[in-house]
Amino acid sequence: MAKTKEMTVVRGLDLARYMGRWYEIASFPTFFQPKDGRDTRATYNLNDDGTVHVLNETWSGGKRDYIEGTAYKADPNNDEAKFKVKFYLPPFLPIIPVVGNYWVLYLDEDYQYALIGEPTRKSLWILCRQTQMDDEIYNQLLERAKEEGYDVSKLRKTPQDDPPPESDAASTDNKGIWWFKSLFGK
User: Which residue ranges does the record assign to the Lipocalin/cytosolic fatty-acid binding domain (predicted)?
Assistant: First the structure.
């Protein structure tokens, strides 16, 4: 079996510019996201201590599901965009910390679209500041993911409404319920 090369990771990421909302254009399906999820997005806000508040949202069955966490540099002394993201599970009774990798593999110079992965190549996300992405850019990101050793046939496009739904509809919220349901294959 051929040895897999180390992934190329963005260097010198301007964390302040990276903050804000990112829409999931495509991703590898994961057990912790609903199979019928749509309008999936992440919102990042810089904390005073240099960590990042993470709000992941998705809509499933007409209800907003969300989970909050914290991201931080994997190695504060390195300029590579390698982060750790920590969530507490279950989200509605946060007691178990779960930490994952979040590596920025590609980011355009205007900070409008990004390719996110992690070292096992089991997770991949294509993110954009807009709910839709130009096919040419999407295909370029697919090629970049292939170069990094990803099987892009596993990518699934995420349905996105335009305009996107509002996230302040508290009556339709399910804090991390999708995670709990995913344990039972729902």
Answer: 13-160
